[in-house]
Predict the structure.
Amino acid sequence: MEHLELFFKSIFIDNMVFAVFLGMCSYLAVSKKVATAVGLGAAVIFVLAITVPLNWLLDQYLLQPGALSWLGEGYEDYDLSFLSFIMFIATIATMVQLVEIVVEKFSPSLYNSLGIFLPLIAVNCAILGGSLFMQSREIETLGLAFNYGIGSGIGWFLAILAIAAIREKIRYSNVPAPLRGLGITFIITGLMGIGFLSFGGMLTGGEEEKKPAKETAIEVESIETEAAKELADNTKIVE
């Protein structure tokens, strides 16, 4: 249940675009066509699925205070947390370079359509945000880190796919002139963000256990008895 909850929460509730507005540059620039949006979204899923677990390992066994204790005595006092940003970005840049090489090799048309935004995944706020959120939320296991990376990537993919499909249909709509282009795109993004907020209560119910009816009846009876005793004592004082 923990894996399932984290997966759905990272997709719908903590969506990178609609909840924290990360990765908006490529979200707005590469969402004019569905085919291009699908290619970039798949690349983001792959990069997040690889970099979040790798950065979890770096954080657990290298960067946290005392993480070097596995090297032996005398290393438990070292704190390399100040290197977090550098190490995370280096890992992300390496994976993005790998994705760029693969896409250019097997899909030159997609590589040309993505243009500069494919290498810019390395500085995409959503990619770095996935690793930083993993660190700040203190995800406990490598499996959960991989789950969070996949879920965050799918959430970003759904966001850019949805806006790309809507923008393709909007071309045939009578949009007022001042709102054409990014204006109507921002409005639609806001409305979609409100829609995704409705998922906020999806995983919050059922936390409190319902008490059996017998226990409730006993509690009510005890409260009534105490109230009757208090009333009797107050009557004696008045007399």
The radius of gyration is 26 Å. The first helix runs from residue 2 to 13. Residues 2-205 form one domain.
